[in-house]
Amino acid sequence: MNYVCVKCGQKFSLASNQWKCDCGGLLHLEYTKKPVDFTATAVARNHSLWKYIDALPFDLEDCWQQVTLGEGDTPLISVGKSLYAKADYYMPTLSFKDRGAVTLIAMAKKLGVNRVVADSSGNAGTAIAAYAARAGIACDVFVPASTSDKKIKQIEAHGAIIHKIPGTREDTAQAAIDMVQETNLFYASHIYNPLFWEGTKTYFYEVFEQCNGSMPDAFIIPVGNGTLLLGAHIAFKELLSWGLIDKLPKILAVQAENCSPISKAFQAGKSTVDAVENTGTLAEGIAIAAPARGAEILAAVRETGGDIIGVTEESIVDARQKMAVQGIYVEITSAANYAGYLSFVKKYPSLQNQFVVFPLCGAGIKSN
What we know:
Blueprint: E1 2-5, E2 11-13, E3 27-30, H1 38-41, E4 76-78, E5 83-86, H2 97-110, E6 115-119, H3 123-135, E7 138-144, H4 149-157, E8 161-165, H5 169-183, E9 186-187, H6 195-200, H7 202-210, E10 218-222, H8 227-241, E11 250-256, H9 261-267, H10 294-303, E12 307-311, H11 313-324, H12 332-347, E13 356-359
């Protein structure tokens, strides 16, 4: 098992603590996977994402069993004629980021890491802090100073050291990178470390299983740094290579209009993403003005025949209220997903008659 540079092809062992290639290229993960037996997993007594271990970078006897909190196997909730929401706010730390955090921290424990560094707008930091605590690993989490108090308190409750960084989300990431470079600590990054997507891809395994061996026509996916979207692309390609699906579901990605560099690049037909100014959005979880993996995100969406749009602040607030009166209370960033669906239906009226799934990424109590 190795990290592989997407730019020059150089390989690094996982024990190297490499988070980026010497040439500046970003890393992917290379290892041998077995196809998932979804007939067996559908009736498994294990109701966590670890029932898919054949396609994860671990063995049955690995230390993940000391780290897991039972994450995964979240329900699909009907919210319309052919629209379903997958309730990933049922996770142990109340967000989908637990999927990636548990795989990343389980590997850190396997490698003998005793301290990790992470940066986050909130949910990823919470998840990394929780699983690090579970694994007995010390944790430093860098967050923007503007991060909601509720998320900061949740991170602190798990014993992590909080570093509040003034300025942009990018300033926060740079502060974390500076510490990693100075100390050579393990960078538990949901952006740079591809182990994180090995967890998020299980979201799509679960949907495939819950839909009796078929896939929706499209997935609505929020995109800031792309942790769920890149997991989707991995899962789709795996399912296709295993002969379990005959085409890739469409990825319909959503950004906040006030911070939408990937949407702007997509609409302009570009293959790379230019940084933009974040003019302020309530959807803090996707407020990424300079996404490191923007080019990969664009390529993934285009490969599925998908699209990327931005949604307004007013539509996000309205969508949150519309879900709340259906008994579904999500954090503000998650409301952008439903706002995105409503916008996509206006752009593609036929979508309202197609099978679509979107994520409830985080619980409402996370937002102020």
